[in-house]
Design brief:
Length: 512
Amino acid sequence: MVKLLIATAFVALMPGLTPAVAADSSPEAQCSAAKNLQLPTFDMKVASVDHVKDKGPAHCLVSGSFEHRTGADGKPYAIGFSIALPDNWTGRFLVQGGGGLNGVVRPAVGDVASGGKNALSRGFAVISHDSGHKGEAWDTSFRADQIATLNFAGWSVEKVTALGKALVAAYYGKSADRSYFAGCSTGGREAMASAQRFPTLFDGIIAGAPAMRTSRSNMSLAAKNVAMNKISPASADSAPDRSKAFSDGDRDLVLKGILKSCDGLDGLEDGMIANPGACKFDPASLVCPPGKADGCLTKQQADVVAETFSPTLDASGRPAYVAFPYDTGVMSTTDPIPGLMRFDDKRNRQFKNNAMSFDVDDAVEKADIGDPQQRLINADQWTDLSSFATRGSKIIFFHGVSDPWFSSNDTVGFFNRMSAATKTGKRVEDWAKLYLVPGMSHCSGGPAGLDQFDMLTRLIDWVEKDEAPRSVEASGKAFPNRTRPLCPYPLHAQYKGEGNADNAASFECRNN
């Protein structure tokens, strides 16, 4: 059995430390020997070791767990992990973010914002994990245990990173040259929390559609659902039938109204809204004039549309959650998560909410005062990233403008607050970028969104070559053969007035 000496949990590779097997061993033999790895600072148990050749680049896949214990609720807990160690390693290491409430170990490939070529395919060692508990996507039972909740709040990222760096050093006989993190949704929150709470952990971070304060975003969605309930006729079981609050024609009318008001603001009418900051659509413009009943909305319908996209206000009139932007994916039923106005879709997490009233102040009090665990899980409050920025680390945010779960305006708000609070003497654009993705739903998809883009390459070049990213080219299935530049906030893509309208080169990044 191979004994490895790790100086600290953060892996200071000691002189004389040797890899798992002799350097001249075959990759298969080296991988096989990995099942005997021992890390004295971790109670690691290796469950399986496989040398994989038929799924991407050849790599050693090590799966296991550590931090084994019995929780306060009497249940067994551990942090499960899977690490992919490529035969042709580049010296880079990436921690992959989770999703939902975690609870499962996803394939360790590092595919967030990678443009179709994941981190493993690029020669990264990649580790994924379950954040310290087992369960289905929305199983909250782990919150009965303090450590499990702390791990979900972000502490598991620090622990898994330490383990991953130790495994990399043990397997290859040298420490990783650079360390990265990439995640979306829950993984985006983990990315933010890492930059906030563990500012020396990563050289580069990608934070997509961060679930930074689900207590407030869920509250806002509940309020919007109730607004639709109020204008919905009762079904046979007396519950509001939201499918009849708006007909297909009504929904199409709303979408066309949004496009008519906002599509051309980027200099081109192309079914995409590239300048959401300038979009000023007014649902009242669709209200039926006297004597007309078809091809228009009732005042009640228009009011619900307006409320759906407006900030959710408390009793004093202050925003309890930000507005959602008007965009092309608001009526989507083709994405895994339906569009913002599709509360009638059974996949919507509000679908069973049949309430006819909603108290925003009560909901805020329950979220902010009655659930202190959630306040710790949330990542929206800490805005000073001065240590992260000063050490030379970089962070890239991205968010789909059609995201129906978390408003991209919330990420914009955080980015602005972060920019103001971080005092380093550096310009924020020297260490942080935000890209809004027109038409994209939650992390991907969108009936009029281009959701394929490579921010990982841009991050690598920024960290390792000091080449700051500018625009990032996007493409996707929604518009085959079309490319568009994604511009760093507050810029947007504007058509130059000439050139192929489906070519990113015909656009430039401009401010409003």
